[in-house]
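Hi all, long-time lurker, first post. I run a small reading group and we've been trying to get comfortable going from sequence to structure in the token notation. Rather than ask abstract questions, I figured I'd post a concrete chain and ask someone more experienced to write out its structure so we can walk through it together at our next meeting. Sequence below, copied exactly:
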Amino acid sequence: MRKPAVVVSLACLATLGGVGFAFAGTTASSPAPVAIRISNDDGELASVPLPGNSFSVSYRNSIYGTLAEERYTVSSDGTYVLEQIAADQLAVLEEYYAVPGVPSPAGTSDRRAWVVEPDPARPATFEKLSLAATDLGERTLHVPGAPPLELWNLVEDSNPFVVLHLEETP
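-- Answer (accepted) --
Happy to help. Here is the structure in token form:
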């Protein structure tokens, strides 16, 4: 049995004037609103308006059992780039990710304890991101101004994956 589709809307977007994002082909004076669309083989599972140019996905690391987070910045061509990795446990960054840089303590308002920039010589750029959305991993989408969206609650255990991609919204 498929779990019901969820659509997250931000009423404050209308109040704030619908901050948008300019895909190629639009102008800075008239940006096209963008949403993160979450889907799988069953179709669209959720859509979250993206009021700025960043979002993140957190998860429980299966080896260390602590939370980690991948933070993305949206480019003007509609792709998104991994800009920062954060974790509650330093070993997740140093051993699991084997990042080339030295992690540093996160700021006091950060959700995680440690942060690091990925290798700038090898940027991770995506048009679509396929993720395992298991109950164990607890993958959660974080969009500024929206409540966290628990991706694992959108799928059945027999088919626990989702695909994230950006789409212009009307």
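A couple of things your group might point at:
The first helix runs from residue 11 to 16.
Residues 16-168 form one domain.
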